[in-house]
Amino acid sequence: MSLKDVLREKIEAHRSRTKTLVTKHGDVKVGEVTIAQAIGGARGVRCLVTDVSYLDPEEGIRFRGKTIPEVMSELPKPKGKDYPYVEGFWYFLQTGEIPTQAQALEVVEDFKARSPVPQYVFDILRAMPRDSHPMVMFSAAIVAMQRESKFAKFYHEAYDRRTAWEYMYEDAADILAKLPVIAAYIYRMKYQGDTPIASDPDLDLGGNFARMMGIDSPYDDVARMYFILHSDHESGNASAHTTHLVASTLSDAYYALSAGINALAGPLHGLANEEVLRWIQDVYDKLGGKIPTKEDLTKFLWDTLNSGKVIPGYGHAVLRKTDPRYTSQREYCLKHLPDDDLFKVVSSIYEVAPDILREQGKAKNPWPNVDAQSGVIQWHYGIKEYDFYTVLFGVGRAIGVLTNITWDRGLGYAIERPKSVTTAMLEEVAGV
Length: 432
Ligand code: NMX
Ligand code: MLT
What we know:
With 432 residues, the protein is an all-alpha fold. The chain has 20 helices and two strands.
Protein backbone atom coordinates (compact mmCIF):
# COMPACT_ATOMS: atom_id res chain seq x y z
CA MET A 1 0.00 0.00 0.00
CA SER A 2 1.23 3.51 -0.75
CA LEU A 3 1.75 6.08 2.01
CA LYS A 4 -1.44 7.83 0.96
CA ASP A 5 -3.47 4.61 1.08
CA VAL A 6 -2.17 3.84 4.58
CA LEU A 7 -2.95 7.41 5.59
CA ARG A 8 -6.48 7.13 4.22
CA GLU A 9 -7.10 4.03 6.36
CA LYS A 10 -5.63 5.69 9.44
CA ILE A 11 -7.57 8.92 9.05
CA GLU A 12 -10.86 7.16 8.38
CA ALA A 13 -10.36 4.89 11.40
CA HIS A 14 -9.48 7.86 13.60
CA ARG A 15 -12.48 10.01 12.69
CA SER A 16 -14.94 8.11 14.89
CA ARG A 17 -12.64 8.64 17.93
CA THR A 18 -12.66 12.39 17.40
CA LYS A 19 -16.39 12.43 16.73
CA THR A 20 -17.21 10.41 19.85
CA LEU A 21 -15.08 12.71 22.01
CA VAL A 22 -16.82 15.81 20.68
CA THR A 23 -20.40 14.54 20.55
CA LYS A 24 -20.50 12.30 23.65
CA HIS A 25 -17.87 13.83 25.94
CA GLY A 26 -17.62 17.39 24.70
CA ASP A 27 -18.44 18.86 28.14
CA VAL A 28 -15.66 17.04 30.01
CA LYS A 29 -13.07 19.53 31.29
CA VAL A 30 -9.42 19.14 30.27
CA GLY A 31 -8.24 21.92 32.56
CA GLU A 32 -8.87 25.44 33.72
CA VAL A 33 -7.38 28.75 32.70
CA THR A 34 -5.86 31.12 35.22
CA ILE A 35 -5.31 34.84 34.83
CA ALA A 36 -1.54 34.24 34.64
CA GLN A 37 -2.11 31.87 31.72
CA ALA A 38 -4.47 34.25 29.91
CA ILE A 39 -1.91 37.06 30.12
CA GLY A 40 1.18 34.85 30.00
CA GLY A 41 1.07 33.32 26.54
CA ALA A 42 -1.40 30.51 27.38
CA ARG A 43 1.42 28.55 28.97
CA GLY A 44 0.20 25.08 29.94
CA VAL A 45 -3.36 25.62 28.65
CA ARG A 46 -4.50 22.33 27.13
CA CYS A 47 -6.49 23.34 24.08
CA LEU A 48 -4.73 21.79 21.10
CA VAL A 49 -4.92 18.17 19.94
CA THR A 50 -2.30 16.32 17.95
CA ASP A 51 -1.11 12.72 17.82
CA VAL A 52 1.98 13.47 15.74
CA SER A 53 4.22 14.21 18.71
CA TYR A 54 4.00 14.81 22.45
CA LEU A 55 6.34 16.84 24.66
CA ASP A 56 6.81 15.61 28.20
CA PRO A 57 8.46 18.28 30.40
CA GLU A 58 10.89 15.79 31.93
CA GLU A 59 11.51 13.37 29.08
CA GLY A 60 11.29 15.65 26.06
CA ILE A 61 9.81 14.91 22.68
CA ARG A 62 8.36 11.64 21.42
CA PHE A 63 7.47 11.41 17.76
CA ARG A 64 4.41 9.17 17.31
CA GLY A 65 5.22 7.68 20.72
CA LYS A 66 8.89 7.02 20.00
CA THR A 67 11.91 8.70 21.60
CA ILE A 68 14.65 10.23 19.45
CA PRO A 69 17.03 7.24 19.92
CA GLU A 70 14.20 4.84 18.96
CA VAL A 71 13.39 6.85 15.83
CA MET A 72 17.03 7.03 14.81
CA SER A 73 17.59 3.29 15.29
CA GLU A 74 14.29 1.87 13.99
CA LEU A 75 13.72 3.82 10.78
CA PRO A 76 15.29 2.63 7.51
CA LYS A 77 18.58 4.28 6.50
CA PRO A 78 20.44 4.71 3.23
CA LYS A 79 23.15 2.06 2.84
CA GLY A 80 26.24 2.85 4.91
CA LYS A 81 24.62 5.84 6.63
CA ASP A 82 23.95 6.44 10.34
CA TYR A 83 20.73 8.44 10.10
CA PRO A 84 17.33 7.56 8.61
CA TYR A 85 15.83 8.73 5.36
CA VAL A 86 13.90 11.96 5.91
CA GLU A 87 11.36 10.50 3.49
CA GLY A 88 10.90 7.43 5.73
CA PHE A 89 10.48 9.74 8.72
CA TRP A 90 7.77 11.61 6.77
CA TYR A 91 6.02 8.27 6.23
CA PHE A 92 6.34 7.55 9.94
CA LEU A 93 5.05 10.93 11.13
CA GLN A 94 2.13 10.86 8.71
CA THR A 95 0.99 7.30 9.37
CA GLY A 96 2.47 6.37 12.77
CA GLU A 97 3.97 3.24 11.20
CA ILE A 98 7.65 2.48 10.70
CA PRO A 99 8.07 2.08 6.94
CA THR A 100 9.96 -0.77 5.37
CA GLN A 101 13.00 0.09 3.26
CA ALA A 102 10.82 -0.32 0.16
CA GLN A 103 8.13 2.00 1.51
CA ALA A 104 10.74 4.64 2.40
CA LEU A 105 12.24 4.34 -1.08
CA GLU A 106 8.81 4.79 -2.62
CA VAL A 107 8.58 8.16 -0.87
CA VAL A 108 12.13 8.98 -2.01
CA GLU A 109 11.00 8.45 -5.61
CA ASP A 110 7.74 10.34 -5.06
CA PHE A 111 9.59 13.34 -3.58
CA LYS A 112 12.01 13.38 -6.52
CA ALA A 113 9.09 13.78 -8.90
CA ARG A 114 7.69 16.61 -6.76
CA SER A 115 10.98 18.42 -6.18
CA PRO A 116 11.37 20.67 -9.27
CA VAL A 117 10.88 24.29 -8.23
CA PRO A 118 9.12 26.63 -10.67
CA GLN A 119 11.53 29.06 -12.35
CA TYR A 120 9.51 32.08 -11.12
CA VAL A 121 10.51 31.21 -7.53
CA PHE A 122 14.19 31.60 -8.41
CA ASP A 123 13.37 34.80 -10.29
CA ILE A 124 11.63 36.19 -7.20
CA LEU A 125 14.56 35.24 -4.97
CA ARG A 126 16.99 36.85 -7.39
CA ALA A 127 14.91 40.06 -7.50
CA MET A 128 15.05 40.45 -3.72
CA PRO A 129 17.77 42.58 -2.15
CA ARG A 130 20.69 40.19 -1.55
CA ASP A 131 20.92 41.38 2.05
CA SER A 132 17.31 40.35 2.83
CA HIS A 133 17.31 37.91 5.71
CA PRO A 134 17.31 34.31 4.39
CA MET A 135 14.12 33.63 6.38
CA VAL A 136 12.41 36.42 4.42
CA MET A 137 13.55 34.78 1.19
CA PHE A 138 12.48 31.35 2.40
CA SER A 139 9.02 32.48 3.50
CA ALA A 140 8.51 34.55 0.33
CA ALA A 141 9.46 31.58 -1.87
CA ILE A 142 6.91 29.36 -0.12
CA VAL A 143 4.01 31.78 -0.34
CA ALA A 144 4.92 32.69 -3.93
CA MET A 145 4.24 29.07 -4.91
CA GLN A 146 0.65 29.27 -3.65
CA ARG A 147 -0.61 29.38 -7.24
CA GLU A 148 0.41 25.70 -7.44
CA SER A 149 -1.94 24.72 -4.59
CA LYS A 150 -4.03 21.67 -5.37
CA PHE A 151 -6.07 22.27 -2.23
CA ALA A 152 -7.00 25.82 -3.31
CA LYS A 153 -8.08 24.54 -6.73
CA PHE A 154 -10.09 21.73 -5.14
CA TYR A 155 -11.70 24.21 -2.74
CA HIS A 156 -12.90 26.39 -5.59
CA GLU A 157 -13.93 23.60 -7.91
CA ALA A 158 -15.23 20.63 -5.96
CA TYR A 159 -14.79 21.02 -2.21
CA ASP A 160 -15.75 18.06 -0.06
CA ARG A 161 -14.60 18.05 3.56
CA ARG A 162 -14.29 14.25 3.60
CA THR A 163 -11.53 14.24 0.99
CA ALA A 164 -10.03 17.66 1.77
CA TRP A 165 -7.05 16.05 3.53
CA GLU A 166 -5.95 14.37 0.29
CA TYR A 167 -5.38 17.76 -1.35
CA MET A 168 -3.73 19.09 1.78
CA TYR A 169 -1.44 16.06 1.68
CA GLU A 170 -0.64 16.69 -1.99
CA ASP A 171 0.33 20.29 -1.25
CA ALA A 172 2.26 19.25 1.84
CA ALA A 173 4.32 16.66 -0.04
CA ASP A 174 4.86 19.02 -3.00
CA ILE A 175 6.16 21.73 -0.68
CA LEU A 176 8.38 19.51 1.46
CA ALA A 177 10.03 17.97 -1.60
CA LYS A 178 10.90 21.47 -2.88
CA LEU A 179 12.11 23.06 0.36
CA PRO A 180 15.67 21.63 0.34
CA VAL A 181 16.11 22.89 -3.24
CA ILE A 182 14.91 26.37 -2.26
CA ALA A 183 16.97 26.48 0.96
CA ALA A 184 20.16 25.39 -0.80
CA TYR A 185 19.53 27.85 -3.63
CA ILE A 186 19.20 30.72 -1.14
CA TYR A 187 22.43 29.64 0.53
CA ARG A 188 24.48 29.35 -2.65
CA MET A 189 23.01 32.52 -4.15
CA LYS A 190 23.41 34.66 -1.04
CA TYR A 191 26.63 33.42 0.50
CA GLN A 192 28.57 31.39 -2.06
CA GLY A 193 29.03 33.88 -4.88
CA ASP A 194 25.77 33.00 -6.57
CA THR A 195 26.81 29.47 -7.53
CA PRO A 196 23.73 27.23 -7.23
CA ILE A 197 24.39 23.49 -7.57
CA ALA A 198 21.94 21.26 -9.42
CA SER A 199 20.28 18.39 -7.59
CA ASP A 200 21.24 14.77 -8.23
CA PRO A 201 18.28 12.51 -9.11
CA ASP A 202 20.05 9.49 -7.60
CA LEU A 203 20.10 10.88 -4.08
CA ASP A 204 17.60 10.96 -1.21
CA LEU A 205 16.50 14.25 0.35
CA GLY A 206 19.38 14.42 2.86
CA GLY A 207 22.02 13.40 0.33
CA ASN A 208 20.68 15.80 -2.24
CA PHE A 209 20.59 18.67 0.22
CA ALA A 210 24.27 18.14 1.08
CA ARG A 211 25.11 18.03 -2.61
CA MET A 212 23.16 21.22 -3.41
CA MET A 213 24.83 22.97 -0.46
CA GLY A 214 28.21 21.87 -1.85
CA ILE A 215 29.25 20.08 1.35
CA ASP A 216 30.76 16.58 1.41
CA SER A 217 29.78 13.55 3.47
CA PRO A 218 28.99 13.22 6.37
CA TYR A 219 26.97 16.42 5.87
CA ASP A 220 24.28 14.29 4.21
CA ASP A 221 23.83 12.48 7.53
CA VAL A 222 23.95 15.79 9.40
CA ALA A 223 21.10 17.03 7.19
CA ARG A 224 19.03 13.89 7.87
CA MET A 225 19.64 14.16 11.61
CA TYR A 226 19.00 17.90 11.71
CA PHE A 227 15.74 17.83 9.74
CA ILE A 228 14.36 14.93 11.79
CA LEU A 229 15.32 16.47 15.15
CA HIS A 230 13.74 19.82 14.29
CA SER A 231 10.58 18.41 12.74
CA ASP A 232 7.98 18.61 15.45
CA HIS A 233 7.56 19.69 19.07
CA GLU A 234 3.88 19.03 19.61
CA SER A 235 1.38 21.71 18.54
CA GLY A 236 1.75 24.62 20.92
CA ASN A 237 5.12 26.00 19.80
CA ALA A 238 4.81 29.21 17.82
CA SER A 239 5.63 27.85 14.34
CA ALA A 240 3.40 24.77 14.64
CA HIS A 241 0.60 26.73 16.21
CA THR A 242 0.76 29.47 13.58
CA THR A 243 0.72 26.95 10.74
CA HIS A 244 -2.25 25.17 12.32
CA LEU A 245 -4.09 28.45 12.96
CA VAL A 246 -3.72 29.68 9.40
CA ALA A 247 -4.65 26.29 7.93
CA SER A 248 -7.72 26.18 10.18
CA THR A 249 -9.25 28.95 8.04
CA LEU A 250 -9.09 26.51 5.08
CA SER A 251 -6.09 28.42 3.81
CA ASP A 252 -3.84 26.06 1.92
CA ALA A 253 -0.48 24.68 3.02
CA TYR A 254 1.52 27.36 1.16
CA TYR A 255 -0.08 30.22 3.11
CA ALA A 256 -0.01 28.26 6.34
CA LEU A 257 3.61 27.12 6.20
CA SER A 258 4.88 30.53 5.12
CA ALA A 259 3.14 32.01 8.19
CA GLY A 260 4.64 29.32 10.42
CA ILE A 261 8.10 30.08 9.04
CA ASN A 262 7.57 33.75 9.93
CA ALA A 263 6.85 32.70 13.52
CA LEU A 264 9.99 30.58 13.55
CA ALA A 265 11.99 33.70 12.64
CA GLY A 266 11.53 35.22 16.11
CA PRO A 267 14.59 35.26 18.43
CA LEU A 268 12.64 33.61 21.25
CA HIS A 269 11.81 30.73 18.87
CA GLY A 270 13.88 29.30 15.99
CA LEU A 271 16.09 32.33 15.47
CA ALA A 272 17.69 31.50 18.83
CA ASN A 273 20.07 29.12 17.01
CA GLU A 274 21.44 32.09 15.09
CA GLU A 275 21.53 34.14 18.29
CA VAL A 276 23.67 31.51 20.05
CA LEU A 277 26.37 31.87 17.41
CA ARG A 278 26.04 35.66 17.38
CA TRP A 279 26.47 35.69 21.16
CA ILE A 280 29.55 33.44 21.05
CA GLN A 281 31.14 35.50 18.25
CA ASP A 282 30.49 38.60 20.32
CA VAL A 283 32.35 37.01 23.23
CA TYR A 284 35.27 36.16 20.90
CA ASP A 285 35.33 39.74 19.59
CA LYS A 286 35.35 41.22 23.06
CA LEU A 287 38.23 38.92 24.00
CA GLY A 288 40.20 39.85 20.86
CA GLY A 289 39.74 36.42 19.29
CA LYS A 290 40.84 34.40 22.36
CA ILE A 291 38.90 31.21 23.14
CA PRO A 292 36.84 32.07 26.23
CA THR A 293 37.53 30.25 29.49
CA LYS A 294 34.75 29.28 31.88
CA GLU A 295 35.54 32.41 33.89
CA ASP A 296 35.19 34.58 30.76
CA LEU A 297 31.88 32.88 29.92
CA THR A 298 30.57 33.34 33.45
CA LYS A 299 31.23 37.06 33.19
CA PHE A 300 29.62 37.36 29.73
CA LEU A 301 26.58 35.33 30.77
CA TRP A 302 26.02 37.63 33.74
CA ASP A 303 26.61 40.71 31.55
CA THR A 304 23.95 39.40 29.15
CA LEU A 305 21.43 38.85 31.92
CA ASN A 306 22.22 42.15 33.61
CA SER A 307 21.65 43.99 30.34
CA GLY A 308 18.11 42.57 30.30
CA LYS A 309 18.69 40.03 27.51
CA VAL A 310 18.03 36.31 27.54
CA ILE A 311 20.72 33.65 27.21
CA PRO A 312 19.94 32.22 23.79
CA GLY A 313 19.57 28.46 23.60
CA TYR A 314 18.57 28.13 27.27
CA GLY A 315 15.15 27.81 28.85
CA HIS A 316 11.92 26.42 27.50
CA ALA A 317 8.19 26.98 27.80
CA VAL A 318 7.46 23.29 28.46
CA LEU A 319 10.72 21.39 29.03
CA ARG A 320 12.20 21.22 32.50
CA LYS A 321 15.29 19.15 31.66
CA THR A 322 18.05 19.26 29.05
CA ASP A 323 16.37 19.00 25.65
CA PRO A 324 16.97 15.49 24.22
CA ARG A 325 17.49 17.18 20.84
CA TYR A 326 20.41 19.01 22.45
CA THR A 327 21.71 15.71 23.83
CA SER A 328 21.35 13.96 20.49
CA GLN A 329 23.38 16.65 18.72
CA ARG A 330 25.91 16.71 21.55
CA GLU A 331 26.41 12.96 21.10
CA TYR A 332 27.03 13.58 17.40
CA CYS A 333 29.63 16.21 18.31
CA LEU A 334 31.34 13.95 20.85
CA LYS A 335 31.68 11.28 18.17
CA HIS A 336 32.54 13.40 15.12
CA LEU A 337 34.00 16.70 16.31
CA PRO A 338 35.19 16.31 19.91
CA ASP A 339 38.16 18.65 19.36
CA ASP A 340 36.22 21.43 17.64
CA ASP A 341 36.94 24.71 19.49
CA LEU A 342 33.39 25.97 19.15
CA PHE A 343 32.03 22.68 20.49
CA LYS A 344 34.30 23.09 23.51
CA VAL A 345 32.95 26.61 24.10
CA VAL A 346 29.35 25.39 23.82
CA SER A 347 30.19 22.58 26.27
CA SER A 348 31.70 25.10 28.68
CA ILE A 349 28.54 27.21 28.47
CA TYR A 350 26.58 24.07 29.38
CA GLU A 351 28.77 23.70 32.47
CA VAL A 352 28.15 27.24 33.73
CA ALA A 353 24.86 28.60 32.32
CA PRO A 354 22.36 26.42 34.27
CA ASP A 355 23.83 27.47 37.64
CA ILE A 356 23.83 31.12 36.60
CA LEU A 357 20.21 30.96 35.44
CA ARG A 358 19.25 29.20 38.68
CA GLU A 359 21.06 31.86 40.70
CA GLN A 360 19.31 34.61 38.76
CA GLY A 361 16.07 32.83 39.62
CA LYS A 362 13.85 33.86 36.73
CA ALA A 363 13.91 31.12 34.10
CA LYS A 364 11.74 28.15 35.03
CA ASN A 365 14.04 25.89 33.03
CA PRO A 366 17.79 26.57 33.29
CA TRP A 367 18.72 23.81 30.84
CA PRO A 368 19.73 24.07 27.17
CA ASN A 369 17.25 23.65 24.34
CA VAL A 370 17.85 22.40 20.80
CA ASP A 371 19.26 25.74 19.62
CA ALA A 372 22.21 25.76 22.01
CA GLN A 373 23.94 22.95 20.13
CA SER A 374 22.77 23.00 16.53
CA GLY A 375 24.88 25.87 15.23
CA VAL A 376 28.16 24.20 16.24
CA ILE A 377 27.59 21.32 13.85
CA GLN A 378 26.68 23.59 10.93
CA TRP A 379 29.70 25.78 11.67
CA HIS A 380 31.98 22.75 11.77
CA TYR A 381 30.90 21.70 8.27
CA GLY A 382 31.52 25.17 6.88
CA ILE A 383 28.21 26.97 7.22
CA LYS A 384 29.50 29.97 9.12
CA GLU A 385 26.77 32.32 7.90
CA TYR A 386 24.72 31.82 11.02
CA ASP A 387 21.75 33.89 9.87
CA PHE A 388 21.04 30.91 7.59
CA TYR A 389 20.57 28.45 10.46
CA THR A 390 16.88 29.17 11.00
CA VAL A 391 16.20 28.26 7.37
CA LEU A 392 17.60 24.81 8.15
CA PHE A 393 15.32 24.66 11.19
CA GLY A 394 12.45 25.67 8.86
CA VAL A 395 13.06 22.83 6.41
CA GLY A 396 12.92 20.40 9.34
CA ARG A 397 9.95 22.05 11.01
CA ALA A 398 7.97 21.76 7.78
CA ILE A 399 7.93 17.96 8.16
CA GLY A 400 5.97 18.15 11.41
CA VAL A 401 3.68 21.08 10.74
CA LEU A 402 2.73 19.85 7.27
CA THR A 403 1.87 16.48 8.77
CA ASN A 404 -0.25 18.19 11.40
CA ILE A 405 -2.28 20.24 8.94
CA THR A 406 -2.89 17.15 6.79
CA TRP A 407 -4.41 15.47 9.84
CA ASP A 408 -6.25 18.67 10.84
CA ARG A 409 -8.13 18.44 7.55
CA GLY A 410 -8.55 14.68 7.85
CA LEU A 411 -10.22 15.07 11.23
CA GLY A 412 -12.15 18.19 10.22
CA TYR A 413 -10.74 20.40 12.98
CA ALA A 414 -12.60 23.70 13.28
CA ILE A 415 -11.37 27.18 12.50
CA GLU A 416 -9.42 28.30 15.57
CA ARG A 417 -11.06 31.12 17.47
CA PRO A 418 -10.38 31.34 21.22
CA LYS A 419 -12.24 33.94 23.27
CA SER A 420 -10.63 37.11 24.54
CA VAL A 421 -11.65 39.07 27.61
CA THR A 422 -10.89 42.61 28.76
CA THR A 423 -8.55 43.63 31.57
CA ALA A 424 -11.59 44.93 33.48
CA MET A 425 -13.22 41.50 33.24
CA LEU A 426 -10.11 39.87 34.70
CA GLU A 427 -10.07 42.45 37.51
CA GLU A 428 -13.66 41.69 38.25
CA VAL A 429 -13.05 37.92 38.37
CA ALA A 430 -10.03 38.55 40.60
CA GLY A 431 -12.02 40.85 42.86
CA VAL A 432 -9.61 43.81 42.54
N1 NMX B 1 17.79 33.71 29.72
C1 NMX B 1 17.35 34.70 30.55
N2 NMX B 1 16.11 34.77 31.03
C2 NMX B 1 15.29 33.76 30.72
C3 NMX B 1 15.67 32.68 29.91
C4 NMX B 1 16.98 32.69 29.39
N3 NMX B 1 17.43 31.75 28.57
N4 NMX B 1 14.63 31.84 29.78
C5 NMX B 1 13.60 32.39 30.47
N5 NMX B 1 14.01 33.56 31.03
C6 NMX B 1 13.20 34.53 31.78
C7 NMX B 1 12.05 34.99 30.91
O1 NMX B 1 12.48 36.00 29.99
C8 NMX B 1 11.07 35.47 31.95
O2 NMX B 1 11.49 36.72 32.38
P1 NMX B 1 10.43 37.88 32.73
O3 NMX B 1 9.64 37.33 33.88
O4 NMX B 1 11.27 39.04 33.08
O5 NMX B 1 9.59 38.08 31.50
C9 NMX B 1 11.30 34.47 33.08
O6 NMX B 1 12.61 33.90 32.88
C10 NMX B 1 10.28 33.33 33.09
O7 NMX B 1 10.26 32.72 31.80
P2 NMX B 1 9.95 31.16 31.64
O8 NMX B 1 8.57 30.95 32.13
O9 NMX B 1 11.03 30.34 32.23
O10 NMX B 1 10.07 30.97 30.05
P3 NMX B 1 8.94 31.25 28.95
O11 NMX B 1 8.10 30.04 28.85
O12 NMX B 1 8.27 32.53 29.16
O13 NMX B 1 9.85 31.40 27.63
C11 NMX B 1 11.63 30.83 26.17
C12 NMX B 1 10.48 30.29 27.03
C13 NMX B 1 12.21 29.68 25.37
C14 NMX B 1 11.08 31.88 25.21
C15 NMX B 1 12.70 31.45 27.11
O14 NMX B 1 13.24 30.44 27.93
C16 NMX B 1 13.80 32.15 26.36
O15 NMX B 1 13.65 33.34 26.04
N6 NMX B 1 14.95 31.45 26.07
C17 NMX B 1 16.01 32.02 25.30
C18 NMX B 1 15.66 32.02 23.83
C19 NMX B 1 15.68 30.64 23.26
O16 NMX B 1 16.60 29.87 23.47
N7 NMX B 1 14.64 30.31 22.49
C20 NMX B 1 14.58 29.02 21.79
C21 NMX B 1 13.49 28.10 22.28
C22 NMX B 1 13.52 26.83 21.49
N8 NMX B 1 13.16 27.06 20.09
O17 NMX B 1 13.89 26.67 19.22
O18 NMX B 1 12.12 27.61 19.79
C1 MLT C 1 10.35 24.10 19.25
O1 MLT C 1 11.01 23.17 18.80
O2 MLT C 1 9.34 24.51 18.68
C2 MLT C 1 10.85 24.81 20.47
O3 MLT C 1 11.52 23.97 21.33
C3 MLT C 1 9.84 25.69 21.13
C4 MLT C 1 8.70 25.03 21.82
O4 MLT C 1 8.50 23.82 21.80
O5 MLT C 1 7.95 25.80 22.46
